[in-house]
Please model this.
Amino acid sequence: MPDALPSDLLDRLSALLGPRGLLTDPADIAPHLVDWRNLFQGSSPAVVRPASTAEVAGVVRLCAEAGVPVVPQGGNTSMVAGATPDESGRAVVVALTRMNRLRDLDVTDMTMTADAGLVLKAAQDAAEQAGALFPLSLGAEGTATIGGVLSTNAGGNTTVRYGNARELMLGLEVVLPDGSVWNGLRRLRKDNTGYALRHLFVGAEGTLGIVTAAVLRLFPRPRDTALAFCAVADEDAALALFRRFRDRDESAVRAFEYMSGQGVDFAVRHIEGVTLPLSERADHYVLVDLASPRGDAGLRGMAESVLEEALEASEVLDATIADSDAAAKKLWRIREEHPEAQKREGASVKNDVSVPVSKVPEMIRRCSAALQALIPGSRPVPFGHIGDGNIHMNLEQPEGMDPAEFLARSHDIMDCVNAVVRDLDGSFSAEHGIGRLKTDMMAEWRGGAELAAMRAIKAALDPKGLMNPGKVLP
Ligand code: FAD
Ligand code: 2HG
Ligand code: ZN
Model:
């Protein structure tokens, strides 16, 4: 429906971007209008695909002049429909994926400067080719972009060691809502010069401007690694094992992931090539990923010795340590395929929550019981980043239930989990953000002075409210 745009805007966008930079055919636009979870179907007359910062600035300026909203989009893997336009058909989607250059990489500064549309995996590969490490790692890394992971402040598997995306960023280049360009691509470790503007845009989910490039931190590459897949007695045992490894050598714990028996069952059932690596099924598992830049760190020996202690303490029931890179990848797939396996099993509701690490076992147990009481036969699938206190407290529909009937209970399910999480001083969104899905929770959780300050920031930078409207703020 191109006539949803003011007359001549399309012509001006076309003149600015050329044929490769502007999509108006509904078939070409369609994949950009629906979120990864198929929760929201948006509408838009055009998707623009700028190839440079100047082109992004030009698009934003033209749209601002015409009063047309813009929706930044990277790999479109948002779990909360943050990159999906609304149904009005008024917004233009700005897809950043043609901006995928690595601008610079410096192993003395240990930084790289990348376009926002560079895919996360490509950034990891570039760092590795230079003999370094860009540590951010998540299941969507083959599709998610640098602009997307920064705009959601993505966490993922290595937060426990390296921090969230925010901690991995030193500088940004941003096109502001009026079309002006802020070049903050400074690669400085020390720079106390007023408000840390760059941090405003991290986690803003595209509501304050469009990130066009970023300076990212690099780390020494691992020279010794070890990966163990363990069956553990219960949630407390999972946490106790985390503490054992952390006490032995905190710097070596690159990832520490919890999985329930239910989640692993789904992965084995639905994902080709995924098998249970232990002789007996268990109700609780963890994946322990150790890495050190020291070639002589002896991590396999360390893993064996810690696991031995934990076996004696009856925390660990059984364990296997990968004996090759291929075996390690296979073990990681059991964890990484959890979202896809859950999708294939049927309808599910996600609860990306966090609590203080010490409260994780209680949170999982209380939420699981409350959810099963709420919807008899439903199947809790808690999994994720236990070392960060961030569990995906997901719920799979009862077998045989109509998926639509189950999804109609989504808000009850989220409320049920959130009540426990609130009681334990946690957060209703640990790493996926707010997007469109969770805006109605903001007033209750972040109301008062906090939400008022957020609104003031939004109004100052985007007075016309054209930058990803309807996201984050209620
Ligand atoms: P998109 O989905 O395109 O956009 C996400 C948000 O950022 C939207 O609000 C969008 O408007 C905005 N945005 C995108 N690019 C820009 C830009 N250049 N400038 C300004 N705003 C922009 N998240 C985690 O934190 N941890 C995980 O472990 C994790 N695992 C995942 C596994 C799977 C299988 C999937 C599908 C998703 C997972 N996610 C995870 C969700 C997630 O947020 C990301 O995959 C990633 O951060 C989004 O990147 P993207 O490029 O796809 O962004
Ligand atoms: C992960 O950790 C992602 O795999 C997705 O954050 C979690 O599917 C989910 O709920
Ligand atoms: Zn996650």
Q: What stands out?
A: The mean pLDDT is 97. Residues 239 and 293 are 25 Å apart (CA to CA).
